[in-house]
Amino acid sequence: MKDLYVGRQPILNKAHKTVAYELLYRSGDENAFPSDISGTEASIQVISNVFAELGLEEISGGLPVFINFNREMLLSDLPDLNASSVVVEILEDVKIDRSVLEACIRLRKSGFRIALDDFVLNSHTRQLLKLASIVKIDWRADPVEHIQKICTEIKPYGVKILAEKIETEDEFRQAAELGFNFFQGFFFERPTVVKTTAVKVLSGSMIEIMGLLQEEDVDFGSIEKVIARDAALSFKLLKIINSASVALSRKIDSIAQALVLLGQKELKRWLTLLMLTNINDRCPAELMSTAFIRGLFGENMAVAAGREAEASSVFFTGLLSLLDAILRMPMNQVVKGLPLSESIKDALIKRSGPLGIYLRMMKAYEQADRESISRYAEALGLETHQVVRCYMDSLRESGLYLQTVS
Questions:
Q1: Which of 11, 30, 67, 178 is the most exposed place for a label (fewest CB within 10 A)?
Q2: Is 5 helix (H, G, I), strand (E, B) or coil?
Q3: Phi and psi dihedrals of 80, rounded to 5?
């Protein structure tokens, strides 16, 4: 397992109320930006950690988040982030040219707000003012008189202004009197580090997907099969759907539904991003294998019982049933940020409902509890020998798959 970190510094209004957070790359508990990583790598890692691991809602509490973008990020074909929640913060060293301006226009048309970091007014940055919503000014970079002049000159553009590096009450008061709308700095709160444990996918899964993505005509059906057999990838996919700008008209019962909601284009972008963040090292292979076997076992039982309509939901439930052990946290916390149907949530948390009995059977079979196996088999309308056959088939199917990706 690998620990992931995201720095989070609050942005406040004049009433000292937190109205947004800036998200910062961190590589450990040390609350500082490491020197051995590029700005692009750092921003990609932040996006991956927030959207595919922590969950946007969990880290932001529903408030907007500022994410740093350098030139490469602006010009990249990134996944469709949540425009209503993400503020694109353009770093001060970005060279302003036609390509950057066009990228900013596209972002604005997509609904994103743009913030200009460490703003210095000149002929180049003036071009961005018409596209920006927020201008961030380093309070410690210039005398107050010069900052006042900048505020006066950018006032006609109607942008909000944010004072960075506010460290004293007097500085806050001065900035407020100059008309600053937002404030950020150690006077309010130093960045805090949010930590989570990365869910590791089977290394072969990512290798297989990488190969599929390189093909001219991407076979998303094959990618779906790979994702459906890997609990970690399924978990990340659900987190992404819940965090990104995907309108959920219904709750999710299967991987197929999840992929339909995300769409082929976004799926390719997110999978590529996940591969860039090195999520596949030191995978808990035994847990992943067991989760996959559970999914197949449940699916086979549903088909044998004549309940084909719920087979995909049973498979999905079995696949996710060990995420509490994988993440080392209670299942009710695991599913809190996932857009799952109530029947799957009830099964995972309470082992109740129509899907819960399948999980109880899986557990009973793993523990060789014959009395419980017989009782659950009867409830499912199965003979004990059918249950045995379903499990043996799941072992065979999982073995064939794991051989191809290990």
A1: 30
A2: strand
A3: -75, 95
Mean pLDDT lowest among 115-119, 178-182, 298-302, 308-312: 308-312
Residue 157's pLDDT is: 93
Q: Could you state, in order of their start, the residue ranges of all structural domains in the chain?
A: 2-196, 200-276, 285-405
Architecture of domain 2-196: Alpha-Beta Barrel (3.20)
pLDDT at 197: 61
In terms of C-beta density within 10 A (0-12 exposed, 13-18 middle, 19 or more buried), how is residue 72 classed? Answer: middle
Burial class (CB in 10 A: 0-12, 13-18, 19+), 324: middle
Residue 139 CA to residue 233 CA, distance in Å, equals 43
Chain centre to alpha carbon of residue 273:
11
Band the pLDDT of 29: cuts 50, 70, 90: low
What b-and-e string marks burial along 221-256, b requiring 16 or more CB atoms within 10 Å of the CB? eebbebbbbbbbbbbbbbbbbbbbbbeeeeebbbbe
DSSP-assigned beta bridge partners for residue 68 = 89
Helices (H), 155-202: 169-177
Listed residue (145, 113, 121, 150) closest to 20, CA to CA: 113
The pLDDT of residue 281 is 46
Q: Around 156, how many Cα atoms within 13 Å sit in the side-chain half-sphere?
A: 3
User: What is the identity of the amino acid at 58?
Assistant: E
Residue 276 reports pLDDT greater than 60: no
Q: What is the DSSP letter of 232?
A: H
Strands 65-69 and 18-26: parallel
Amino acid at 307: R
Q: Report the distance separating Cα 284 and Cα 377, nearest Å.
A: 31
Q: How far apart are CA 28 and CA 197, in angstroms?
A: 12
How far is Cα of residue 222 from the mean position of the Cα atoms in its chain?
23
Q: Is the pLDDT of residue 48 over 90?
A: no
Q: What is residue 213's three-state secondary structure?
A: helix
Q: Which helix (H) or strand (E) holds 25?
A: strand 18-26
- Quote the crossing angle between the two packed helices 231-243 and 285-304, to the nearest 10°: 90
User: Which residue's structure tokens are 């044998």?
Assistant: 304
The residue count of the chain comes to 406
Q: How far apart are CA 58 and CA 79, in angstroms?
A: 20
Q: Are 118 and 142 in contact (CB under 8 A)?
A: no
